[in-house]
Amino acid sequence: MELKTNAALIIIDQQKGILHPKLGRRNNPQAEERIVALLAHWRLTGRPVIHVQHLSHSPESVFWPQQSGVEFQERFLPSVGERLIQKRVPDAFCATGLEAGLREAGIEQLIIVGVATNNSVESTARTAGNLVFNAWVVEDACFTFDKADFFGHPHSAEEVHAMSLGNLHGEYATVVSTAQILTAG
């Protein structure tokens, strides 16, 4: 496993609203600590960091622009020189200029972390794979919430997370752990 010197760390939706109790029970309680570790490593090695911020269309959303939930959590505030992508849908590539910016910078390898595994992370990773980027999803630096399926059957956050990673691995992205990334370079 080789981590390129210009591999971009894409941190998805680490905003204050994602911590709201109304979202329900989640998995991977150490995900944020792992994202912080990856972010520190990226800053130390001078690799590109891209912060993705969701701006919801719905006033009921925890990411509605007119309230504090839309703001980044303090530990995930972009630093000088780090790119900010604002999106209106789950996919960070959709109508944002992300692809053009990556191509212009010659970046082919993307390390994707954040929330929610089965929503914005999966959507972004699928598009990255379809656009032939070398996408890696860091399974223990992502999380999601309990969710009922289409037929109303409840599934734990762990099950939803695992299925989403299963959807991605091998077809759209390579699923890895934080430890694998940190030891790769």
TrEMBL record:
MF (Gene Ontology): hydrolase activity
Entry's InterPro entries? Isochorismatase-like_dom (IPR000868), Isochorismatase-like_hydrls (IPR050272), Isochorismatase-like_sf (IPR036380)
Q: Which Gene3D superfamilies match?
A: Isochorismatase-like
Q: Which residues form the Isochorismatase-like domain?
A: 7-180
The superkingdom of the source organism is: Bacteria
Q: Which residues form a coiled coil?
A: none
Kindly give the SUPFAM superfamilies that the UniProt entry links to this protein: Isochorismatase-like hydrolases
- Keywords, ordered alphabetically: Hydrolase
Name the chain's protein.
Answer: Cysteine hydrolase
List the source organism. Pseudomonas frederiksbergensis
